[in-house]
Amino acid sequence: MLNIRLSVLVTIIAVAFTLGLAGATALQEGEGPGKDGKGDDSGGMALPAPVADPELGKLVGSWEWDGEIMHPQTRAWTPLKGKEEWKWGLNGQFLLLEVEVADAFGPGKPMVGLWVVRPAGDGKYKAWWFDVLGTVEVSDGELKDGKITFIGTSRWGKSRASFTISDDGTYESNSDMLGPDGKWIPHMKAKARKVE
To answer: Is the pTM value of this prediction over 0.70?
Structure first.
């Protein structure tokens, strides 16, 4: 009985592999679905044009910032310094932010994070945050009155972050955490300046 099951499994895998190869070959030969449904010169696999988002484009480059973070229990503000690099990645489909907050966990122990932002059109955005604490946050953003605001959820709860980007090579950011009473509590604020 086990031999029959194994032979059926091997047959299924072989058929799936063969169909996958045939599909890949058809795409390479231009037989796959294209814009007209009949195939095109790209083999149905053309790269999309890079995303054009002038507001996010202002962030591209190297930045340094000074800010403060509020302790959740004591509500005392602690000064912070950081540096970050914003760049378009993955064929210009996503804006990538690599950020380092100096001495966040003590001398020589920075907080490091990666933020991935995807423009969705009409001033809307989707974003994903990852950091050295293992945090994964998914958020939705919107551009309104010159400010981009993201609202997201992670294991830490619900958060809100906003960016006001100036044409003079600076921006201000603020982030808040949603409290148990349903009110936003200030969490972090910073002023950044472009250095490259």
So the answer is: yes
